[in-house]
Amino acid sequence: MSSAATTAGSAPTAAFGASNPWLIAMVVSLATFMEVLDTTIANVALRYISGGLAVSADEASWVVTTYLVSNAIILVASSFIAKRYGRRRFYLLCLATFTVASICCGLAWNLESLLVFRMIQGFAGGGMVPISQSILADSFPPSKRGQAFAMFGVAVVVAPVIGPTLGGYLSDNFSWHWCFLINGPVGVFAFILVYMLVQEPESLRRERAEMRSKGTRFDITGFLLVATFLGALELALDRGQTEDWFGSNFIIATAAVCLLALAFAIPWLMTHRNPVIDVRLLASRQFGACVIVMLATGAILIATTQFVPQVLQTNFGYTATWAGFALSPGGLVTMMMMFAAGRLTSMVQPKYLIAIGMAIIALAMWDMTRLNADLNFGFFVWSRLYLGLGLPLIFIPITAASYDGLRPDQTDQASALINAARNTGGSIGVSIASNVLAHREQWHQSRLVEHVIPSEPGYTNAFNQATQFFAGRGSSLLDAQSQAMGWIGHQVQTQASYLAYIDVFHVLMVISALMVPLALILRRIDLKQDAAPGGH
Fold it and tell me: Tens digit of pLDDT for each residue in 439-489?
């Protein structure tokens, strides 16, 4: 939405031509809805994907993280590409590629092919969102832009709400393939409307001609270094647990590539005339702190969206549909709170709202550490409601805080970086949570097994009672003892799983709590100025 900041106060540049701008808003919001939907629609379907492709749950989680990483990588380049080669052309290319990649994801024959298509889908989707914001900014006069961005924002907020529920319903009643195939007809419909309605503003054509005359080139070296850094970081985080971390030559090599890419990227980006990322923005106290807070927010949002449905399905026996329903009320609260947060941002310093939002999220994560086998559906609904209260107090105020003190020519870069931070944080959050879950489940199981010995009175009593129970149901004494031993082993595994999930929520709680003092170091801003619209 950053383009609104640069064009505020000027007449619209007629991106809609003779078309109704509200129709344009509906079309680009539909395309963006489809893209954001895919960040969460597969979360509740991971068990089906794991079973259908015969891979582990850890490997299936790559379906989420590869999309987020590729989405974040392209975000930093989308603004330049659109200006240099044409906004409308780039948008249509992204929309077409996203639609085709979605269909290919639904037709994937193994995990490797699914991840390749998912990566392509993420690249295409990441280019669509900032361009959608620019199209809206150019299609409406300044007095109407707020309403247009509100429609866009509601679409962005509703998509993650519907994603888990829709993904669960499709997986339970059809197959996980339809989580991706459903994008086919929607994408074709959106492509036709964009092709017919959206035109290239004359001002952008002149700007593109000027860039060509000056020989302005894309910073391909900087882009490749950033992409290598993010990709290697994700690979190391995802495979660290299964590869025994730095006991593995593969992890050592991946970490080395990640650090080398970062080491080369920083001096290159600081000295290049037209860098793909302005690292000086990240080095500033105000913007840098906002990026870190958004990284943490993305980590918590995406990790909980994946792991709450996972624990509901694996430990509580919920279907994918009902696991999605458990998240939906919290998303609706988030949508309603967006409007309240928007009003509060004009009255209360953003840093206080962000700190309050993070404190609420920390309490929501602490509430999830009460996880046990006796919890009902309402517990998970209420826990998600608490999270839904806190998130808008971060997303809206962080826009005002991150744009404070920036020049107009820096707002496109800032918007891309904030969006990239959210997606990268989501990917890192899923990886950290997956590793904590796997490591702590093994640790808890080892500790619990230490007590499964004949000298432990608790074990002896449980074994005898279980043996009597199975014998009373017609089993022979030998079979009853074998069944009792199997039942105790299952209980140990189940309890270790609960304790591991509790550890995951403890980690997320600590991350949230650490963001509170970081938010408070942000500068006070002038609330009388209109903040530039931010990322979705």
Answer: 888 888 888 777 777 767 777 777 777 788 877 777 777 877 788 888 877
The residues, any chain, with a CB within 8 Å of residue 183's CB and separated by 6 or more, are: 34, 38, 98, 99, 102, 103
Q: CA neighbours within 13 Å on the CB side: how many for 108?
A: 29
The pLDDT, as a whole number, for residue 506 is 93
Say how far apart CA 502 and CA 535 lie, in whole Å.
Answer: 32
* Rounded Cα gap, residues 24 and 195, in angstroms: 11
Q: Which amino acid is at 271?
A: T
Mean pLDDT computed over every residue of the chain: 79
CA neighbours closer than 13 Å in the CB half-sphere of residue 337: 21
User: What is the Cα–Cα distance from 305 to 155, expressed in whole angstroms?
Assistant: 18
pLDDT tens-digit readout, 121-170: 988 888 787 777 667 766 766 556 556 665 666 666 667 667 777 887 88
94-133: b (≥16 Cβ within 10 Å) or e: bbbbbbbbbbbbbebeebeebbebbbbbbbbbbbbbbbbb
| Contact indicator for 447, 81 with CB cutoff of 8 Å | no
Euclidean distance between the first and the last CA atom of the chain, given in angstroms as a whole number: 8
Residue linked to tokens 């206080």: 352
Distance from C-alpha of 526 to C-alpha of 346, rounded to nearest angstrom: 9
Cα–Cα distance for residue pair 45/68, rounded to 1 Å: 17
Listed in order, strand segments (DSSP E) in 139-203 are none
Say if CB 395 and CB 341 are below 8 A apart: yes
Give the whole-angstrom CA distance, residue 132 versus residue 130.
Answer: 5
* Whole-number pLDDT of residue 345: 76
Q: Do residues 308 and 380 lie in contact, with contact meaning Cβ atoms separated by under 8 Å? A: yes
Closest to 357 in 3D by CA, of 371, 374, 376, 338? 338
Residues 6+ apart with CB under 8 A from 490: none
Counting as low any pLDDT under 70, the low residues of the chain are 1-19, 133-134, 137-138, 140-158, 160-161, 200-216, 238, 241-242, 407-412, 455, 527-536
Rounded to whole angstroms, the Cα distance separating 52 from 61 reads 14
**Cβ atoms of 357 and 392 closer than 8 Å:** yes
Q: Are 45 and 320 in contact (CB under 8 A)?
A: yes
CATH of region 1-217: 1.20.1250.20
Residues in the chain: 536
Contact assessment for residue 197 and residue 27, using Cβ atoms and an 8 Å cutoff: yes
